[in-house]
Design a protein that fits this description.
- The complex is a heterodimer of chains A (320) and B (276).
- Chain A is mainly alpha-helical.
- In chain A, 75% of the residues lie in helices and 0% in strands.
- Chain A has a single domain, classed as MetI-like (MetI-like fold, Orthogonal Bundle), CATH 1.10.3720.
- By secondary structure, chain B is mainly alpha-helical.
- Chain B has one domain: MetI-like (MetI-like fold, Orthogonal Bundle), CATH 1.10.3720.10.
- In chain B, helix 3 runs antiparallel to helix 8 and helix 3 packs parallel to helix 10.
- The longest helix of chain B has 37 residues.
- The chains are: A mainly alpha (320), B mainly alpha (276).
- The interface between A and B is large, with 64 and 50 residues.
């Protein structure tokens, strides 16, 4: 029963957060200077023409009424129609989802497969406050932003023919080889940061566990470091690592705007940003709302996982 | 300045690099080292040599004063934004953590809502509403950094509020205002300092990303992000346009990050040892 109550409260809280997000994003899209009619018709349109276009898309109604209509449609599962292409927003998103999902999967996989072991090893080897090398390496990893690393990668691979393509994205189901050649570099740029953040977090978490008395006891019993890591450290350090992997997933699913832009990839992130410029309200609103929903839902699942991983916190993280 | 003594070498090196960058920015903007940043002094896209140490850009302007001015703009924008964030987050975090109740709930809810926005999209929306430029960059950095700092200050304030010395102070008749100023604030100051340091590096990255996409600091003004954006256009012809500001930006973020790590170990100490 407690568990059901917990889920009910969490779902209600998530719904409240998303409602507030929807209000904020709606307000932001209508507060942008220069409305849709102005942008789409250009500077030489008469006020009458602008009014006609606005009326066609229902932009002449009251703001509250527009918001109500939008929210009602979203709750029915209708994200609206792109005012630029005339296609349903859902179709437009589905068209661009493969790029975003592929980048996300590759980035998160790298973070889990490379970042986590790296963090564990540097923590176990570190010792005291030392381990300056590990600290410096982790620091460098999180200090090189996508737009610097990505630009350098673009430079190196356009100057010297190294077999990988910049841009020229091909869908996975069309040509696997060409798809991988065009996605490896942007994925690597994203993975660089994801791996570094994950390694840093894992390192901190593991170092926090290593001071626990049960580790001392295990060392005294003569357990090997490998056994100790597998038996005690992994489970007890898992939470922060899970949180950071979730954050990376949500962040990448929200759209890797800069990398998509640099490598000319047709992903969701750059589409939403372009829609901001075109005042394509339906696309902007749906894009931000979906990204926020992904974030909120993933966080809810992590909270639930907390309770499973650490029963001390009570059923499904009921400690707070 | 006693806190400096407890820092390890790596953190001190970070602090030194940061001081060096601030000094360079001041030398460029106040003393005019490297010449005027908008004067056309040579051929276009000339590689670095004795006359223009960092090369020239697409208009023939020397890159050295532009990079120095860019450091100044970026650091100043981030620092001002972080000052705003630190003030706002401390107030909000104390309200949520010490007072609690429905007001605290409202604060936390607001912070959660901001948290749910993807960082760069949030920044771009702010720039679209306010118009691209410095104020949009400033507001973006504040909105991106406030949620995390507020949450952590809240947790710290909550922990302190449950301690015995707070209870005994309240039983002895101390006012909430006195307890907040005397007991709670000093105990959350460490959290604010550490998170403020990290927020400074986030600020530099947000400025960079936003300006890189063309929504931040606008040419002809220079910031590290704006310089990197323009350098990207001439990447194949003149890589130094991107390499210098890029290296400086990475150095700044790295210096701040390792300094923040050292500050955290110093202010929020935690024993650690190797597994042998």
């Amino acid at each position: 029963m407690r568990l059901i109550g917990w889920w009910a409260r969490r779902v209600a809280s998530a719904a409240a957060t998303l409602t507030l997000v929807s209000i904020l994003i709606f307000a932001a899209s209508r507060l942008m200077p220069g409305g849709f009619a102005e942008v789409v018709l250009g500077p030489f349109a008469t006020p009458e023409q602008q009014a006609e276009v606005s009326a066609r898309y229902g932009l002449d109604r009251g703001v509250v009424e527009q918001y109500g209509l939008w929210l009602a449609a979203v709750l029915r599962g209708d994200l609206g129609t792109s005012m630029i292409s005339g296609e349903p927003v859902t179709v437009e998103f589905l068209l661009r989802m493969p790029v975003t999902v592929e980048l996300t999967l590759l980035g998160v996989a790298a973070a889990a497969v490379i970042g986590v072991p790296l963090g564990i090893v540097t923590a176990v080897r570190a010792g005291g406050r030392g381990g300056a090398a590990g600290r410096l390496a982790g620091g460098i990893g999180v200090s090189v932003p996508e737009f610097v690393l990505g630009s350098l990668v673009v430079f190196v691979f356009s100057r010297f023919a190294l077999g990988l393509t910049i841009g020229g994205y091909r869908p996975l189901d069309e040509d696997v080889g060409a798809n991988l050649r065009s996605i490896v570099l942007p994925a690597a740029v994203l993975a660089f940061f994801a791996v570094a953040v994950t390694a840093r977090t894992t390192r901190d978490a593991v170092m926090g566990v290593l001071v626990e008395p049960y580790i001392t006891a295990a060392v005294a019993r003569g357990d090997s470091p490998f056994t100790i890591v597998v038996r005690h450290v992994l489970r007890n350090a898992a939470m922060p690592v899970l949180v950071v992997l979730t954050t990376i997933t949500a962040y990448l699913l929200g759209g890797a705007v800069i990398v998509e832009y640099l490598f000319n990839l047709p992903g969701v992130g750059s589409y939403v940003v372009a829609a901001v410029g075109r005042r394509d309200y339906a696309v902007v609103q749906a894009g931000v709302l979906l990204a926020a929903a992904v974030f909120v839902v993933l966080n809810m699942l992590v909270d639930a996982a907390t309770g499973v991983l650490d029963p001390r916190l009570g059923s499904a993280g009921e400690a707070r | 300045m006693t806190w400096i003594r407890g820092l390890d070498r790596l953190s001190l090196a970070g602090l030194a690099v940061l001081a060096l960058l601030v000094g360079a920015a001041l030398a460029g903007t106040l003393l005019g080292v490297g010449g005027a940043q908008d004067a056309i002094v040579g051929p276009r896209l000339a590689p670095p040599d004795g006359q223009w140490p960092l090369g020239t850009d697409q208009l023939g302007r020397s890159m050295l004063p532009r990079v120095l001015a860019g450091i100044g703009t970026t650091l100043l924008l981030s620092a001002v934004a972080v000052a705003v964030t630190a003030t706002a987050s401390t107030l909000l975090g104390l309200v949520a953590g010490y007072r609690g109740g429905w007001v605290g709930e409202v604060v936390l809810r607001g912070v959660d809502v901001l948290y749910a926005f993807p960082t760069i999209v949030l920044a771009i929306l702010v720039a679209a509403v306010l118009g691209p430029g410095r104020s949009a960059t400033l507001a973006s950095i504040v909105l991106v950094t406030v949620p995390l700092m507020t949450r952590l200050v809240k947790v710290a304030a909550e922990t302190v509020a449950r301690r015995d010395f707070v209870t005994s102070a309240l039983i002895s008749g101390a006012s909430h205002r006195y307890v907040l100023a005397r007991h709670v604030l000093p105990n959350v100051a460490g959290t604010v300092a550490v998170q403020g340091t990290y927020a400074l590096s986030v600020g530099i990255l947000v400025e960079g990303g936003l300006s890189f996409l063309g929504f931040g600091v606008q040419p002809p003004a220079s910031s590290l992000g704006a310089l990197i954006q323009q350098g990207g256009i001439y990447l194949l012809a003149a890589p130094w346009l991107l390499v210098w500001p890029g290296m400086v930006l990475v150095a700044a973020v790295l210096a701040i990050t390792v300094f923040g790590d050292g500050l955290r170990d110093r202010l929020e100490p935690r024993d650690s040892r190797a597994l042998k």
